[in-house]
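Quick review question:
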């Protein structure tokens, strides 16, 4: 099973590095097989906001976009169908290198200067989706490196023979016990699904428990 470290930290966030977290989970019986970057290698991509668009004077399917990149306003030609004023998207600045070694340079597209490229998920190597631009959250900070904005730090790949740890509440609860803290999304009274190793309450071995959080002395 693969999962995002930032997703796991939304449940319990101890002050451990990625490597320390992986080591402690492994020592607790949950083998972490690898830590790897969520996104492939690329540089020079930031959060940008589309301020306005006008139709390309010589191409029906292209738009000329005025884009705020944090370091200034750039004019970028874009053919994505979902481009619109007000959206925030990844922008590869001139000099950026995308997956596959593709370098972004200022170019003229049908006679109009384009200083960068607005990116889809496929252009960043995140998926095969090339239907439109990758839309970011409205709260994303313009000019911020896209990896930081999206928390694309590391992902963990783990394996375990016990089904317990395939339930997020149970996994974050174990981590909370290791750190002696309460799982952030495990509120008292909440019902969670847990694996029972000693008592089988149903054919699958799962049972419903009431979450009380991790006690300080657990």
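Suggested answer, residue by residue:
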């Amino acid at each position: 099973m693969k999962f995002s470290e930032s997703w796991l930290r939304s449940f319990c966030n101890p002050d451990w590095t990625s490597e320390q977290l992986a080591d402690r989970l492994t020592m607790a019986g949950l083998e972490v097989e690898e830590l790897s970057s969520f996104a492939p290698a690329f540089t020079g991509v930031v959060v940008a906001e589309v301020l306005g668009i006008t139709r390309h004077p010589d191409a029906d399917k292209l738009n000329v976009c005025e884009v705020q990149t944090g370091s200034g306003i750039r004019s970028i030609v874009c053919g994505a169908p979902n481009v619109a004023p007000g959206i925030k998207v990844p922008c590869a600045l001139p000099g950026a290198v995308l997956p596959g070694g593709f370098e972004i340079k200022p170019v003229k597209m049908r006679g109009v200067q384009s200083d960068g490229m607005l990116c889809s998920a496929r252009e960043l190597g995140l998926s095969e989706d090339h239907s439109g631009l990758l839309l970011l959250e409205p709260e994303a900070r313009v000019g911020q490196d896209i990896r930081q904005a999206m928390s694309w730090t590391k992902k963990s790949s783990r394996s375990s023979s016990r089904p317990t740890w395939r339930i997020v509440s149970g996994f974050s609860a174990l981590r909370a016990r290791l750190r002696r803290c309460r799982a952030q999304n495990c509120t008292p009274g909440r019902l969670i699904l847990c694996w029972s190793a000693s008592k089988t309450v149903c054919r699958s071995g799962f049972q419903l428990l009431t979450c009380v959080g991790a006690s300080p002395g657990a």
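Why it works: The chain has a mean pLDDT of 76. Residues 43-142 form a domain with the OB fold (Dihydrolipoamide Acetyltransferase, E2P) fold (CATH 2.40.50.140).
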